[in-house]
Amino acid sequence: MDKSSELRSTIAEQILDARKNDRALGYVTDRTLSEYQRILHEVSNFIDYILKNKDQLGSNILLDVGAGATRAASQLRSNYAAKGLEVRATVLSNTPQIEKYLGKASTVITSAESLKGIKANSIAGIISVSGLAYSNDFSKVAESIDRVLVPGGIFKSGFVAWMQQGREQFTLHSSMDMEQILREKGYDVSAERIGTQMSYSDVILAIKPPFLDSAANLMKADRLKTGIVRLF
Length: 232
Fold this sequence. Notes:
Shape: globular
Distance between the termini: 48 Å
Number of strands: 7
Structural class: alpha/beta
Number of helices: 9
């Protein structure tokens, strides 16, 4: 098998594995922007970072990784397109709702581990709500994020986890796994947790060098808008 065929096979396996996890865990694919704001502890300062620095970044593109039906992505576009933000998304399957919301032209079917179809050094910011917690290979996810983000680009992801009878056989990662990998790549990283020991939400925000702001400052600014009290 040549390298291109091997890569296609690997990506197909990654997508199939992710779809299986979606079905097993009852993952919600039709999330709204308000749900994004709750899980990610707000996104307004995150987006302001992209808009304020878009000329220096050389990109105005926000990529929603694992966008499901792309409903929230379409709401982000409606709210920020006039201010110069371009919104794109990746999904695991081509559902009819995509055409209703963000549209197929702005949506790529690919896994978080590969982000095939997304050009290197093209994305100003990446968000992901819960989806990355299901990945079996955080190292590949981090490599893909690093590949597509422009220098100075920003990344924010939520990791929702819980303990419930019948679901304990599934491991949902916390942000600490991704935090360590991105720090090793030289990113400025901030991570916070809210909730309880039985149900919690980890959020990670990271900036690729060179740093145009502080990850901790942006995380705090977004959280203060929500009134959320952090656990650590």
